[in-house]
Amino acid sequence: MPNTPIISLRDADVYQRNFLVLNNVDFEMQAGEFAYLIGKTGSGKSSLLKILYGDLPLQNGAGQVAGIDLENLSTSKIPHLRRKLGIVFQDFQLLTDRTIEKNLEFVLRATGWKNKSEITHRIDQVLEDVNMATKKHKMPHQLSGGEQQRIAVARALLNQPQLILADEPTGNLDPETSIEIMNLIKRLSEENNMAVLMATHDYSMIRRFPAKTFRCENGKVLVAESQSLFANI
Ligand SMILES: Nc1ncnc2c1ncn2[C@@H]1O[C@H](COP(=O)(O)OP(=O)(O)OP(=O)(O)O)[C@@H](O)[C@H]1O
To answer: In what order do the strands lie in the sheet with 60-65?
Structure first.
């Protein structure tokens, strides 16, 4: 549907157990848009992302992600939501006991893929997308942090999502590798018209790759004014 936002929240409350982390959140992102999510430690960035990928329930308010309603999202609907998203974490979260190929195959099978040759083909495609085709048979521990994050990005791409949610994806990487990963995510977002919402503490990345920036502050999510972003650094 044209002009349907990829993410919308209306008057949404975000709880961690009984603790109200964010309240009356109105938030919207359009297809293909790239945006940052900033805010102090504990301000609610991860909690907001968790609402969007169905890891926390939306208790009050309305919301949809990639056309799926977040209100009353039943456990059985969560896999459907997750197939429409790619998620990238700070700590990569690869399965350490199997090769890169088997890591990717695991996700495809868990999301309903059955045909062996289609699985192999899709794995080769995403590894090509992140320039990691030669690492297919390696174990995660044989790769550098930056390479492991590339594989995590490839894993996020498997089901051709319209949206990537990234929680501090450069948080464990050195500055040079962080730039590489940012270039990769930016390129993939542009090539595939894929929206990206990236939580980060890394203002040097925002400075280098400027984009719309939301800030979690005092229980609210606001669009950050660009001139105030770098006032303190
Ligand atoms: N599992 C949990 N149970 C109870 N409270 C939690 C839980 N996880 C987070 N919180 C609380 O919710 C609030 C928001 O946490 P959240 O992890 O969303 O912040 P954040 O902005 O992502 O922080 P950081 O930058 O440190 O990752 C914090 O006060 C935190 O203590």
So the answer is: 19-29, 7-16, 60-65, 68-69
pTM: 0.94
Note whether residue 1 is domain-resident.
no
47 in contact with ligand 1, CB cutoff 6 A: yes
Identify whether the C-beta of residue 210 lies closer than 8 Å to the C-beta of residue 199.
no
Is 7 exposed, middle or buried, given 0-12, 13-18 or 19+ CB atoms closer than 10 A? buried
CATH number of the domain where residue 120 is located? 3.40.50.300
Rounded CA separation 181/147 (Å): 9
The ipTM, to two decimals, is 0.95
Q: Please report whether residue 52 resides in a domain.
A: yes
Report the atom number in ligand 1 closest to the C-alpha of 19. Answer: 5
Q: pLDDT tens for residues 32-61?
A: 999 999 999 999 999 999 999 999 999 999
Calculate the alpha carbon distances from 125 to 95, 120, 173 in Å.
20, 9, 25
Ligand 1 and 21: CB distance under 6 A: yes
How many structural domains is the chain composed of? Answer: 1
The pLDDT tens digits for 141-173 are 999 999 999 999 999 999 999 999 999 999 999
Q: Which residues span the domain enclosing 141?
A: 7-229
